[in-house]
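Appendix B, record 7
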Amino acid sequence: MTGRELEKNGWRQGSILNDDDAIELAKNCGFQADFKFYAVVSSQSCDIANNNPELEPYVEVYFARADLEALDGNFEHNKNARLLHTKFLQRTEGNDLSKEKFIEIKAFDKKFIPKDWFNGRSPDSRRAFEDYDVRNFSDWLAARYSRPALPSEFNRRLNEADPKGVLRKKAKKATNQLSGMYVEIHPFDEIGEEERYRVNLLGTLVVDYDGDLDAAESALESHANVLRAAGMDVICRLAKEDEISIALIRRFKRFYYDDLSFSVDAPLPAEARQS
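Structure tokens (predicted):
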């Protein structure tokens, strides 16, 4: 089956399989799970439509946990490079109303499926991600490989100041309010013991955020306090995503606590060493 035929049948990044196809696919590719799941296409839409079987023979599919009762803000909006909580809309039977379905996607619950398997099949027309959530999913996929490596001395100081992760755990609990957190570090380099890092900390909110701004400010301050405990000079700014210019965001790097969660002297697991 050609990529163009896949495209014609509606396959795009973020397409969701119907339940029967998802179960059949899981059996065919050897995916075993003790939880209810959805199968979600993660390949970029142009790759799906590509007609060259030598260059693009597969469609990448994630098996997402389907039994979430609510989203955990610590895993939304690409805050964690290994785990994503997100949602899609499902049309209810007998009317045009839709309800939100919450899902959890783990980085390694994926399979590469030959394009021929999709012959004669179409995505579930009742289920669809909103555009924002597709972009969020795409950003999360990219972050597995593009998340920044911060200076080793910066990481060391954080680990030394918070060896058991107590401060970081407290800060992460407050992260529900934020859509993202970014740092600008001066100097972005290894420094001597007598020198201090100067950090601009940027917390972002979704464009339609209507929550408690004081709570969001407090959440950002809790992260700033982690850095201050490590002897860093910190300036904070909170902004909605549409208030930030591309020029500004290019100066900052996404901040992932999970990449700092290991003892400096302990060997890192393989996936962390590759990041």
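Remarks on this record: Residues 213-229 form the longest helix (17 residues). The mean pLDDT is 87.
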